[in-house]
Amino acid sequence: MGNVTIDMSMSLDGFIAGPNGSADQPLGDGGDRLHSWLYDLASWRERHGMEGGERDRDAEVLEESFKDIGAIVMGRNMFNHAEKEWGDNPPFRVPVFVVTHEESDPNIQRGDTNFTFVTDGFQKALAQAKSAAGDKNVSVAGGANIIQQMLTAGLVDEIQVHIVPVLLGKGRRLFQYIGGQPVELERVRTVDSPCVSHLKYRVVKES
Amino acid sequence: MGKVLGGMAMSLDGFVNDSNGSVALLYANFEAFINTDYMQEQMKSTGAVVMGRKTYDMGNGDYTGYEYQVSIFVVTHKPPKKAAKGQNSKLKFSFVTDGLESAVAQAKTAAGDKDVTVVGGASTIQQLLKAKLLDELHITVVPILLNEGLRLFDKLGDHPPRLERLKLIESPAGRTDIIYRVVK
Q1: Quick one: fold of A4-203?
Q2: A58, A145, B115, B176: most buried, per Cβ within 10 A?
Q3: Beta-carbon separation of A181 and B147 below 8 A
Q4: Do B12 and A201 touch (CB under 8 A)?
Q5: Domain extent listing, chain A
């Protein structure tokens, strides 16, 4: 059985997007700075149908995340905001389960990626994603709301944050005030470059 | 001229204390923390300290054997009535009532070629960042999600300073120290 993972680029002050996110600007005002470390990497470019790019440690970290993912869960907002940017062949190439309250087609195929719209809650979406992923990981891709829900429900096994040396000041935070007991983490590894610090943790589950 | 260094330990989700104001979970292993090479080096390079008043009060008036044996400038509205214990020819407290900027300036003079280390809470760090008084920001990411409490990075205004990542250190107990240069 694979893990349920969160893998997000975050500013040092905790934001995963700037304010005013929309379909024209999925990462909000100033939010591009959080993903700029990705754009020149060979592994990112390959995913987005481009050639060339850097093959450094940052690229390896990204490639490692990609290759372990067997399915993805995301919120409807993220889908709505990013759909246009993904174009005809979204970069996932694994089954994606979109949690939504809106009526929609249950299923759409875009290039190599199949999107299933799940209307009966994030737990159901996660269960479907786990079964689709088999031995591989299920990545909870965002937005912040669904990540909060998964964290609150204790469903996350692994958290990787790519801390970008930026203070954004405002926007959408990855971690909100969700309350409840503190959650102990175990550092799995760090990888570091001037552009970004990759910190990977395992969530310590109470036995 | 030395640098002005400041920072704090925060949980991965960005909090510097829990909902009860306790920092116990972030400094569970304080001995290990101050014995890291980075902290030892920083203590040696520190020529003066700026301290927030709440932080000062956490010492309960006794600074015997305090890790920074230098002049310490405490930012406060009202100096305490009783002198702290543990002062000596090197460790001396001064109480600065005309603001953080003044305290930093006085500490710089006292430090000479050495660095000024700021030991304070989230609000002190926020003020330093806003006023562009900090040269290096030292964040210790503690492997825990506190889920609530006081945020380190808040109220930074519309134009927070730019940062450059200088180095990352894997410290004991799963703590990760990241040092940033604050671009002025």
Answers
A1: Dihydrofolate Reductase, subunit A (3.40.430)
A2: A58
A3: yes
A4: yes
A5: 4-203
> Strand runs (DSSP E) across chain B, as ranges?
4-11, 15-17, 46-52, 71-75, 92-96, 115-119, 136-142, 144-145, 150-151, 162-170, 176-183
Helix segments in A53-174, DSSP class H: 57-68, 76-86, 122-133, 144-152
- Measured between CA atoms, the residue of chain A closest to residue B174 is A187
Structural domains present in chain B: 4-183 (3.40.430.10)
Q: Is A76 left (phi over 0), alpha (psi -120 to 50) or beta?
A: alpha
Q: Tell me which residue has tokens 């949980």.
A: B11
Chain A nearest-CA distance from B183, in A, is 11
- Please give the ipTM for the structure prediction: 0.94
pTM comes to 0.94
The mean predicted confidence, pLDDT, of chain A is 94
**How many Å lie between the alpha carbon of B42 and the closest alpha carbon of chain A?**
21
Residue B170 has, within 13 A of its CA and on its CB side, a CA count of 13
Residues 6 or more apart in contact with residue B15 via CB below 8 angstroms: B146, B147, B148, B149, B150, B151, B152
Contact A175 B13 (CB under 8 A): yes
pLDDT confidence of residue A207: 66
Q: Which residues of A touch B129 (CB under 8 A)?
A: 167
